[in-house]
Hints:
Strand content: under 5%
Bound molecules: glutamine
Number of strands: 10
Amino acid sequence: xxxxxxxxxxxxxxxxxxxxxxxxxxxxxxxxxxxxxxxxxxxxxxxxxxxxxxxxxxxxxxxxxxxxxxxxxxxxxxxxxxxxxxxxxxxxxxxxxxxxxxxxxxxxxxxxxxxxxxxxxxxxxxxxxxxxxxxxxxxxxxxxxxxxxxxxxxxxxxxxxxxxxxxxxxxxxxxxxxxxxxxxxxxxxxxxxxxxxxxxxxxxxxxxxxxxxxxxxxxxxxxxxxxxxxxxxxxxxxxxxxxxxxxxxxxxxxxxxxxxxxxxxxxxxxxxxxxxxxxxxxxxxxxxxxxxxxxxxxxxxxxxxxxxxxxxxxxxxxxxxxxxxxxxxxxxxxxxxxxxxxxxxxxxxxxxxxxxxxxxxxxxxxxxxxxxxxxxxxxxxxxxxxxxxxxxxxxxxxxxxxxxxxxxxxxxxxxxxxxxxxxxxxxxxxxxxxxxxxxxxxxxxxxxxxxxxxxxxxxxxxxxxxxxxxxxxxxxxxxxxxxxxxxxxxxxxxxxxxxxxxxxxxxxxxxxxxxxxxxxxxxxxxxxxxxxxxxxxxx
Length: 539
Ligand code: GLN
């Protein structure tokens, strides 16, 4: 419908639409990660949230942002089509990011019991809800459009996704450097505002470039979508209205906690958030569906592959729980206990989050080369082994920070180089788990439920974010009456938390390595895919 004369022409060997998606997702991730780099600092320094509340909100918000793609993906498949979903998501995201720029006045008093600007805090919750909803509509759909731009057997598809993944990380790296700096140095509102402006430009760019999607992202049945169904409103209008209403529900869910004594005792005295309850219900529903599906007349090999996939998805939640410390406890540690001078500049705490994305950009070509090579040598580890290695790297990276604290003389700040090393190891873990996990979903899943399994993959990221929030509470530190932090005391808390997380990662990794031979038997002949390429049959 939207094709034009020039739409079919390629650019640098790829469909033009790829660059439209690349830039849209680059600016979306620019706004998402720039804002995320600032969020914990903003909550604890401006609105004077306690550390624990800050970590929990960071986790519940980011958890929702990864849970809602399940909804956004489903609505898009059935009704809206991907192009319209991306537009809707982009508008919600722009509003949310710009809403974050309203910061009201700073709280006064002690963190946790401070006098907050209640109106500004509500604007913030609403903005977070808009962003989570926007991600839900935009993120899954912009990724699926990339897949649609290539014919089924097009060999350029993998490199297309590699280019797209680079866009994600270029956006993340740039924003952690720029948005975090502006937010921390010039004012929170300017940082959030910049994230909003860039998201708006990304949206305009998508609107101008959408003709290059060549009609691949249109609704399945436009006529059905246009039909009036209620009070003269078409299905399409109702979906938009529903998205607005759902945003209001998310606004409420995000800030609602439930007193349930036995559970909060388990959670170190902190109340359960409604978001966590929703996630657990969704997760339980998924498990019930999965068990039913296993018994629903699939072949033993399909059953074996699905079991392995579910194990991989479940364990990925733990990986993200440790990995996402980088936006929580690592930022707090960088802010309060690190000498952030290096390369002749002083980095802000939020800017340190850029190291992860920079390492992804540096390592991506190496891994693109490594997997096919290992495969040729017959040394390519299977998915479970890769996940095991990923968890071990993630644990060891976290352990480096604990070691760094122990190795630094008392009273001194920890060198930033330790964090750079920790990020290098963490990202090595990410490279063998995150893109590999996406490939595993598309390879191990029974084809007719692949979208559901992709939703399950992101739901695991959502759990990971919430687990990260809870792990963060282990590292909550009380400030001194003047608002500063006792260096030795804080560092001891961080070292203890990082040591515990290291062991969790390493032990889970070892368990996955031990599971690898069984997983090979369960998946029989499909479990040796190098890097998302088509399934291969080694036997
Ligand atoms: N960093 C990747 C992205 O932003 C993956 C995140 C995840 O799945 N948790 O797209």
